[in-house]
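[Discussion] Sanity-checking designs against the backbone

I'm trying to build intuition for which residues belong where. Below is a structure token string of 425 positions. I'd appreciate it if someone posts a full sequence so I can compare it with mine line by line.
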């Protein structure tokens, strides 16, 4: 992957090869100004050579793909993983706050005028993904000289996805319109038959696919019809019929992504009025024309409208946000390595942020040569190391997950984002 360059006035220039950047740094003609992605600033006057550059962005609910192309060359490509745990964390916080308010505390006068939502308000889960999407688009656009922004957006009508023949005022009505409540709508949708044993003419009830304790909701897409013969405590045990059905991964289709995509589309119009917008029906034929397989990154390359690929970058970047601060108010269990529960531990000692010169989320090289990130400390001399995909990195021929700090080599100090270059297979 190339190195981004800006001149001494802060204006973006064309990226340069890593070897050229290394020479400029060794000769004292440039300094490092960023690591995510790696970028340098020249310390001498240079107008620099510039050419047309295009930035392609493939928007998604959980991931976004970004690619930079110029004159048939793919200069950069990668994927950003967005946070999906915001909603569950807020709901967990709500539970612990509710418990706290039920204790014997002083009376607090009721407030009713502090619940107005400002114009353009979005739920925190959508606002987080919105902000992170624009953050990475702006970052790469600011490091390139006058780039042309190409963004693929989606436009979905959920009612049309459910029933293609719907029309008139029907799209404005909910799925359960005309039913007494959501429960009876689920019965009618499942044809009053058990979805486990597939039998009819039985006493049926609704059951949550994802339990509410695990973040599920009471919406119709999270409910199924089950008969009383299958819905027993015995059948929920490991190895029994209902447990097998749940483990098989069978669940109803969810329509969470289309509303989010529609919301993001309107924000893109406002944020980037000069961007060239396209749809999947235009990107897919062009991707096949230039000979790329279907993937988020390849879609981003095709979005730029590159006529043919003359040279492809050898690396792919991956970025993922890391939640470094764990607030004790809604932390049910302490971080791994803590011997005392949150109710007994001091407020300022519930999470270890640093030990022996290492900090949370530092990028390190382990004894085995693997690259990972510190996810937590255990004691004063050991820690847990995870890869950028979230898997624990363990020492070969060892069963425990801990890594001794004395065997780690710190590569860089990271903030709340993990950014890593991966070589193409």
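Best answer:
Here's mine. Compare freely.
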């Amino acid at each position: 992957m190339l190195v981004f360059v800006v001149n001494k006035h802060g204006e973006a220039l064309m990226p340069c090869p890593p070897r050229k950047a290394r020479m400029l740094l060794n000769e004292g003609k440039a300094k490092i100004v960023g690591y995510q992605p790696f970028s340098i600033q020249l310390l001498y006057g240079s107008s620099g050579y510039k050419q047309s550059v295009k930035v392609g962005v493939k928007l998604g609910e959980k991931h976004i793909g970004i690619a930079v192309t110029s004159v048939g060359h793919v200069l950069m490509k990668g994927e950003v993983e967005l946070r999906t745990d915001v909603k569950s964390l807020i709901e967990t916080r709500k539970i612990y706050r509710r418990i706290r308010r039920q204790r014997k505390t002083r009376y607090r006068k009721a407030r009713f005028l502090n619940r107005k939502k400002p114009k353009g308000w979005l739920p925190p889960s959508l606002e987080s993904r919105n902000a992170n999407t624009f953050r990475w688009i702006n970052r790469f656009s600011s490091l390139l000289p006058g780039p042309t922004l190409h963004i693929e957006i989606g436009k979905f009508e959920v009612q049309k996805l459910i029933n293609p023949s719907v029309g008139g005022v029907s799209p404005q009505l909910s799925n359960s319109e005309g039913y007494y409540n959501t429960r009876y709508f689920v019965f009618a949708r499942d044809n009053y038959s058990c979805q486990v044993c597939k039998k009819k003419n039985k006493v049926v009830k609704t059951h949550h696919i994802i339990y509410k304790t695990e973040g599920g909701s009471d919406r119709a897409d999270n409910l199924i019809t089950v008969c009383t013969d299958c819905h027993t405590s015995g059948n929920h045990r490991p190895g029994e019929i209902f447990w097998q059905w749940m483990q098989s991964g069978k669940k109803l289709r969810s329509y969470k992504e289309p509303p989010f995509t529609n919301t993001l589309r309107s924000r893109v119009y406002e944020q980037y009025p000069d961007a060239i917008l396209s749809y999947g029906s235009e990107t897919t034929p062009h991707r096949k024309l230039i000979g790329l397989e279907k993937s988020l990154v390849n879609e981003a390359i095709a979005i730029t409208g590159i006529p043919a690929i003359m040279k492809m970058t050898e690396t792919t970047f991956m970025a993922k946000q890391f939640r470094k601060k764990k607030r004790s108010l809604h932390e049910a269990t302490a971080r791994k390595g803590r011997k005392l529960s949150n109710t007994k531990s001091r407020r300022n000692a519930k999470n270890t942020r640093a030990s022996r010169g290492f900090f949370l989320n530092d990028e390190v090289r382990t004894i085995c040569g693997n690259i990972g990130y510190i996810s937590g400390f255990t004691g004063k001399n050991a820690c847990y190391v995870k890869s950028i995909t979230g898997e624990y990195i363990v020492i070969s021929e060892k069963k425990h997950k801990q890594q001794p700090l004395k065997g780690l080599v710190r590569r860089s100090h990271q903030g709340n984002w993990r950014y890593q270059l991966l070589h193409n297979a």
